[in-house]
Description:
- The chain is α/β, with parallel strands linked by helices.
- It starts with a helix and ends in a 53-residue tail after the last helix.
- It has a single domain (47-250), classed as 3-Layer(aba) Sandwich (Rossmann fold).
- The protein has helices at residues 2-7, 19-30, 35-45, 60-70, 86-99, 112-119, 127-148, 189-198; strands at 50-53, 75-79, 102-106, 153-155, 172-175, 178-181.
Amino acid sequence: MSACASIVPCIAHDEFATREVVLDHCNATFAKLSVPERVAWSLENLPGQHVVTSSFGAHAAVSLHLLTQQKPDIPVILIDTGYLFPETYRFIDELTERLKLNLKVYSAGLSARWQEARFGERWKMGPAALEEYNQLVKVEPMKRAINDLEVGTWFAGLRRSQSHGRKHTAFLEWSNERWKVHPIADWSDRDVHRYLTQNKLPYHPLWEHGYVSIGDYHTTKSIHEVSEAEQLRFFGLKRECGLHEIDLASI
C-alpha cells in the first residue's frame, strides 16, 4: 500500500493526481488486500476522527467486530429513528455489552410521537413524504453526528451483493477532505456467514424469521412477504434511506 499511502496526503491539493486517479489506484490496491488489512491501512493512513456507523441490522456484528478488534474505542454511530424493532433495541444492548462499544446515539430533534402529531405517518403518504421523513429522522442526525464528532473517516458495512443500487460500491470514497471506507464491499453472504460463525457472533434475532434487510418496523418486510428483494424496504419505492447517499462535501 506504500504507493497509495504516498499519494493520499496530496489529494486535497491535486499536486500529483486528480481525485479520480487516486481513488481508482487505491480501490484497485484495496481489492488485493484482506479485509483486516483494509481496515488496518485505513486506520493508519486516513484522517481521524475515525467512526463506524451501524443500523444494527442483520449482519451488523461483522463490521463492529472488525473495527473494534483493531480500534476498541472507535465511536459507533447509531441513528435512532424511534421506530426500530424491539428486537433491534435489544440487539443493540447485546452487542454494545459484548463488544464494549463506544456507542454514540443520534436522533431527530422531534420525538417519533411528536413527528406523527405534526406530520402524520409520512411513510404512508407517497415518495415525497417518505423522502422528507428519511431526511428528518436519518440524514439530518447523521450530518450532525459527522460535524459533532469532527469525522475524518467513516467506515460502513455496505456490500455490493446487498442490492442492485449497491453493486458498484467502492472500497474508498473521498469528498471535502473526508473519507468513506467500505472494507467488506466485495463480500458475499457466504463470506459474512463464515466470519460470523468463525468468530461466534450473532445475526440479528429477526434474521431467522426472514428479515434480511432490517430498518424501521413500519417500512421493513420479511422475505416471506415480498416477491423480490427490492421490496424488502420502503414498500419497493426505494431501497436506500439516504444515509449512504450523503454528499460529504455538503457537510
